[in-house]
Amino acid sequence: MRLGLAGLLAASTLLLAGGAGAETVAERLPACLGCHGESGTSATEGVPSLGGQRADYVVTQLFQFREGQRSAPPMNDMAKGMSDDDLRGFADAIAALPPAKAAGPAADAALAERAKGILAKHQCTSCHGPDLTGQDAVPRIRAQRREYLAAALTGYRSNARPGYDAAMNEAAQDLKDDEIADLAAYISSL
């Protein structure tokens, strides 16, 4: 089922009916979608697409922003003062967005082969799923913005971006710049 903005807002309100958080989600969600994409696919460079993200992953990220464990000033400001119920309401609303769609052409055969080798070597599909759509509290990375993926992997490699556990930081330690570029190009094209 695909929800438009009005349906998404109504669903958010129903999810949190009876509490002050319903207004918070309904009032704040349009601003979120203004950057992250109402259709689930971000058109803003450096801003990730949120469509199809797992609710458990979104809750964790919002919690990290709220608590200052992850730094991205607009997100830290947005999450500041949100209750746990607000975090869950936003996560459920985001999870209802349609999955992100690849913005560019399909990867050429040589790039795809290199990237598949890197994915296998680092066992990326064991956490992100065989089709890279995520599972449980692990994010969907399929069709994510190319520059966002490259920045995230670089941040994990340098430990500048903390994960909610050490798995991504450990997995990225041995990635070379050209491997990050290949992974970002390939995954964004799916």
Characterization of the model:
With 190 residues, this protein is mainly α. 57% of the residues lie in helices and 0% in strands. It has 10 helices and no strands. It has helices at residues 5-15, 21-36, 55-67, 73-79, 84-95, 109-121, 124-128, 146-158, 167-172, 177-188. Helix 2 (21-36) crosses helix 5, helix 6 packs across helix 10 and helix 8 (146-158) runs antiparallel to helix 10 (177-188). The longest helix is centred in the N-terminal third of the chain and has 16 residues, at 21-36. It is globular and about 45 Å long. It starts with a helix and ends with a helix. Residues 1-22 have low confidence and may be disordered.
Q: What tags apply to this protein structure?
A:
single chain, 190 residues, mainly alpha, 10 helices
How would you describe the oligomerization state of the chains in this entry?
A: single chain
Radius of gyration: 17 Å
Number of DSSP strands?
Answer: 0
Structural class: mainly alpha
Which regions contain 5 or more consecutive residues with pLDDT less than 50? 1-22
- Provide the β-strand percentage band: under 5%
Mean pLDDT across every amino acid position: 87
* Spatial shape: globular
Count of helical stretches: 10
Helix content: 55-70%
Order of helices and strands: HHHHHHHHHH
First-residue to last-residue Cα separation:
22 Å
The biggest sheet amounts to: none
Summarize the helices and strands and which ones pair or pack:
Blueprint: H1 5-15, H2 21-36, H3 55-67, H4 73-79, H5 84-95, H6 109-121, H7 124-128, H8 146-158, H9 167-172, H10 177-188
Helix pairs in contact: 1-2, 1-5, 2-5, 3-4, 3-5, 6-10, 8-10
